[in-house]
Amino acid sequence: MASTAQNTLEPLRAGGDSKAKDEDMEEELEYSPFYGIEKGAVLQEARCFNDSHVDPRRCQQVITKLLYLLTQGESFTKAEASEVFFSVTKLFQHKDVHLRRMVYLVIKEIIPSSDEVIIITSSLMKDMNSKNDLYRANAIRVLCRIIDSQMLLQIERYLKQAVVDKSAVVASAVLAGAIHLAGANSEVIKRWSNEVQEAINSRHPMVQFQAVALMHALRANDRLAVSKLVTQLTRSNVRSPMGQCLLVRYVAQVIAESQPGVGNEVRPFYDFLESCLRHKSEVVIFEAARAICNMRDVTTRELTPAVTVLQLFLSSSKPVLRFVAVRTLNKVAMSHPMAVTNCNIDMESLIADPNRSIATLAITTLLKTGNESSIDRLLKQIGGFMSEIADEFKVVVVEAIKALCLKFPQKYRGLMNFLSNVLREDGGFEYKKAIVDAILVLIRDIPEAKEMGLAQLCEFIEDCEFTFLSVQILHLMGEEGPRTKDPARYIRYIYNRVILENATVRAAALSSLARFGAHCPDLRDRILMLIKRALYDNDDEASAGPGGNGVRDRATLYLYQLQEAPEGPESVDPHWRIPAKGLEAALQAYLASPDQEEPFDLSSVPEVVAPSPAKAKAKPQGLAAAVAAGLSNVSGPETQADEYADMLKAVPQLAALGPVFKTCSPVQLTEEETEYKVVCVRHVLEGHIVFQFNCTNTVREQVLEDVSVTMDLADAEEFSEEAVLPLKVMPGVEEGPGQTYVVLARPPGSMALGRFLNILRFRIKEIDPTTGEAEEEGYEDEYQLEDVEVAAADYIKPAFAPNFRAGWDALPEESEMVDDYGIGQRDSLQDAVEAVGRILGMQACEGTDAVPPNARSHTLLLSGIVVGDVQVLVRLSFGIDAQRNVAMKLAVRSESADVSEAIHAIIQEA
Amino acid sequence: MAAEIVDPTIPVVKNMLLLDSEGKRIAVKYFTPEMYSVTAQANYEKSVFAKTSRTNARGEAEIIMFDDVVVVYKFLGDLMFYVTGDQDENEVVLYSVLQAFYESINMLLRNAVEKKTVLENLDLVLLAMDEIVDGGLILETDAGVVATRVTMRQDGEGSPMSNPGLVTLSQAFGSIKEQVARSLLK
């Protein structure tokens, strides 16, 4: 082997040119003890391990060299590794402690094959019983790394004892080993419970931490045991910060799995989390603050103490603490912007933070908590900041601006100006794409912003180096331009592209022009002239590769369509109801077929595309993910709904019922820790409700077959049972839940309400513990589930209303229904707003879900769609008096008076 | 490689890196399967270095988040210490690992943390990393304890376990002297 480590490590040193490398080598020559190290020579040296008189220091050096090679990415062949291993084992005879420590380390690096392990086990066993704690600890760590299940059984006795060893290093070693082994050998390690329990009380913090971790790992699949463990640990005194940190995680899990508290009921264990905020270790404080902020349906009152400690972190001298605080608060700001406003001053000082991640997170948080009046000031601050940060951060800021603009559509002018300014600055493709995307969204959702946005984009394509973006913008111009007040002003910009750009952009510009020609009769003659010029286009897009659409070809086609086509100029824009994907697939199949005599038949393309199995959604990563995390309030349920939709589609009887209008959030129908876990998901359809019961069998010793749910319709006259789809076998915890469905019909479009008693029916078969086989016959059994209720809110889904006032004015005035309600004592208006928002299940508009602190009155604007695709808008005016009694005035407008009435009915009943 | 940690609540360290001022590796340790290939590791180190080398992490440890990881790092002398965890990991936990990482090495090398001494005492550095994290699981975060264990000094009979950090500091320095003398003799 002649090559040096430097050569074999080419990938590690990628990027350096040869000259720089030479310099490196010279430098290294000066001080690296490993200069010119070479595998063959080191392996040769390793033979000294076999000498009769071993020189410990020399051996240590050789081992270090071996490890250096491994660290640098060198790999040993099986034979080489084996040889090294055998000679290393000889070193066990030597007494030198430092040498022994290196021997342990190198064995862990070259994991011996299973047949070789046997050679060192006796040496390791001897060390395991040594008087020296460090020998014992290290021997245990090596053993845990190399043994298999069978050998584990042989030495179990020693390991178990070591768990309660009074030496921290020994206990720690065996606990760590057990955590690694727990995955495959949990049965064996479960037998150590008593010892692990004792270790939990250890006085050494890390032993306590590892013991807690192991205890939980062994019980992770058993929720009852976990909650017992949590109860026990929260009462006892876990001193180790890391252990306490784990405990906070378990508590958060228990809280997440428990039913949300009704009304003012205090969440279980919330007090514990709050007390952790006063812990002396920052690790625990942050873990608890994060856990509180991540709680489902967290209230402002619950958040306050967590936000307060995070606010202290914001002004810490440690970047790590500032980062975690601003990252967590950023997330909180998405759901509870008002809870974070108190931190705004600290947050603003972070805009200048040298750590750009922190600065970016601070800015995006401010953008979320900001109210209309502060936007202009913020934009000014960001303007200066934008030129200093890397593209990936800019993308994050642009995303936040986009969200802000959707929230405050009235502010579009300033925000659009900001976007167009940054669009003109230098930047890479991803950044420019984010800006263009943001502008496109604004044009789509805010009608007033359209003209301004188009004008900005026109200017941008004059000087755009990215073909992809130019094409995208030109397409949009073709769509939107003809419908503006003055389409002629765009022609010049588009035609410039036909003259100046590459073939792809020219073709796109031409298509865009043709659209103007088709939709604007006054401009048609002039456009025809422009298109005619393109007939002499010198370069053809087709030359760029197959599948291209020639510029000249397009020009010819458009001229025909605009002048002579029988369908008239409209034919430029054929409204095919065929998905492009389906067309592509059909065309490819046509090209692949041997017989191309027959012309391609457009009607052969299926109108519905089969959903592609790999729905690769670009997942935001890094900082973008952190900032977007809370936006999943919007996108999260959607993807979940997608998943459900796919599930329903997979069942033919259900797919036939038509599309799902709304999928309600899952409701648990069994107590925690029962034998069966049943969760019900209600899918509302036009004329049906599908009840999906996700069932899990938590008892290994029995098999449940022919599982179905019987729903009692006594209290729900408007419903009739249409189908029951049973589940063949209820799967266990590992396989994930299985589904049984009940389909109820109701008059199409109606908002029928009802409450249902449910009984789970199944055939139960015990499993014989000796053979592991289920008995033949089994018996029928049933189990009472919790009730399921269909509420009016099930028929309403949130919908985005870009401009509430315009939407409100557009709805018929006679549909408006107004009434006053008193809703009793509340902590704050925010509380009341949250409660009513939850009951109605609608989308808050223009950031009105956040109540300014200490406000005496507030107006909440809500928008939604009711089953049957009826739009409904709600304007709620709240007022609070000195006794904290809240009164509200509810005004509803919708496309149907019945719906308005139904909304009032929901509030009356709540 | 070590069996993976199954329980998702246990904090996991994805990797520990010690790079020189040009981004070349001195000692690295990867604990998660997606990073076992040398190419993946090299690419990762390259991007970490590119993103962090121009920041100032000399005073306080710094932090950065990219792709799906969080990295805490600290520059000491002409060396860069990095600890990586999942993006959802408690960053303060990772920070305590990082502290153990550079402080233990600083102790072992008697405040002479620079590339030359680190390479000359690479065995100590590798052992320290081995004592801090075991297959991704955090083993010890007290730099004093780590340093003692590296030098194979016994905790000793009857040594007050309740306060391992304090006792071991002096012990550590005793044995460190020995270590340094040894390495000078090489």
TrEMBL record, chain A:
Give every Coatomer gamma subunit appendage Ig-like subdomain domain span.
643-790
Enumerate the UniProt keywords alphabetically.
Answer: Cytoplasm, Cytoplasmic vesicle, ER-Golgi transport, Golgi apparatus, Membrane, Protein transport, Repeat, Transport
**What is the recorded membrane topology of this protein?**
Peripheral membrane protein
The listed locations are: Cytoplasm; Golgi apparatus membrane; Cytoplasmic vesicle, COPI-coated vesicle membrane
Domain Clathrin/coatomer adaptor adaptin-like N-terminal stretches: 39-559
What are the BP-aspect GO terms? endoplasmic reticulum to Golgi vesicle-mediated transport; intra-Golgi vesicle-mediated transport; intracellular protein transport; protein secretion
Gene3D superfamilies, A to Z? Coatomer, gamma subunit, appendage domain, Leucine-rich Repeat Variant, TATA-Binding Protein
Entries under InterPro entries matching the protein? ARM-like, ARM-type_fold, Clathrin/coatomer_adapt-like_N, Clathrin_app_Ig-like_sf, Coatomer/calthrin_app_sub_C, Coatomer_g_Cpla, Coatomer_gsu, Coatomer_gsu_app_Ig-like_dom
Annotated Coatomer subunit gamma C-terminal domain ranges read 793-907
Q: Which GO terms describe its cellular component?
A: COPI vesicle coat; endoplasmic reticulum; endoplasmic reticulum-Golgi intermediate compartment; Golgi membrane
Region Disordered, residue ranges:
1-23
What GO annotations for molecular function exist for this entry? Answer: structural molecule activity
Function statement? The coatomer is a cytosolic protein complex that binds to dilysine motifs and reversibly associates with Golgi non-clathrin-coated vesicles, which further mediate biosynthetic protein transport from the ER, via the Golgi up to the trans Golgi network. Coatomer complex is required for budding from Golgi membranes, and is essential for the retrograde Golgi-to-ER transport of dilysine-tagged proteins.
According to its UniProt record, which protein family does this protein belong to? Answer: Belongs to the COPG family.
Quaternary structure and partners? Oligomeric complex that consists of at least the alpha, beta, beta', gamma, delta, epsilon and zeta subunits.
Protein name, entry field: Coatomer subunit gamma
Protein's organism: Chlorella variabilis
Automatic annotation (TrEMBL), chain B:
GO terms in the biological process aspect are: intra-Golgi vesicle-mediated transport; intracellular protein transport; retrograde vesicle-mediated transport, Golgi to endoplasmic reticulum
Task: Specify where it is mainly localized.
Answer: cytoplasm
| Record-annotated AP complex mu/sigma subunit domain positions | 13-154
Record keyword Protease present: no
The protein's matches in CDD domains, at most eight in alphabetical order, are given as: Zeta-COP
- What Gene3D superfamilies does its record include? 3.30.450.60
The UniProt entry lists membrane topology as: Peripheral membrane protein
Superkingdom is Eukaryota
One GO cellular component term noted in the UniProt record for this chain: Golgi membrane
Q: Does the keyword Protein transport apply?
A: yes
UniProt KW keywords: Cytoplasm, Cytoplasmic vesicle, ER-Golgi transport, Golgi apparatus, Membrane, Protein transport, Transport
InterPro entries listed in its UniProt record: AP_mu_sigma_su (IPR022775), Coatomer_zeta (IPR039652), Longin-like_dom_sf (IPR011012)
Q: Where in the cell is it found?
A: Cytoplasm; Golgi apparatus membrane; Cytoplasmic vesicle, COPI-coated vesicle membrane
Record's family? Belongs to the adaptor complexes small subunit family.
Function, as annotated, reads: The coatomer is a cytosolic protein complex that binds to dilysine motifs and reversibly associates with Golgi non-clathrin-coated vesicles, which further mediate biosynthetic protein transport from the ER, via the Golgi up to the trans Golgi network. Coatomer complex is required for budding from Golgi membranes, and is essential for the retrograde Golgi-to-ER transport of dilysine-tagged proteins. The zeta subunit may be involved in regulating the coat assembly and, hence, the rate of biosynthetic protein transport due to its association-dissociation properties with the coatomer complex.
Instruction: Name the PANTHER family on file.
Output: COATOMER SUBUNIT ZETA (PTHR11043:SF0), ZETA-COAT PROTEIN (PTHR11043)
Oligomeric and partner information: Oligomeric complex that consists of at least the alpha, beta, beta', gamma, delta, epsilon and zeta subunits.
Q: What is this protein called?
A: Coatomer subunit zeta
- Organism of origin is Chlorella variabilis (Green alga)
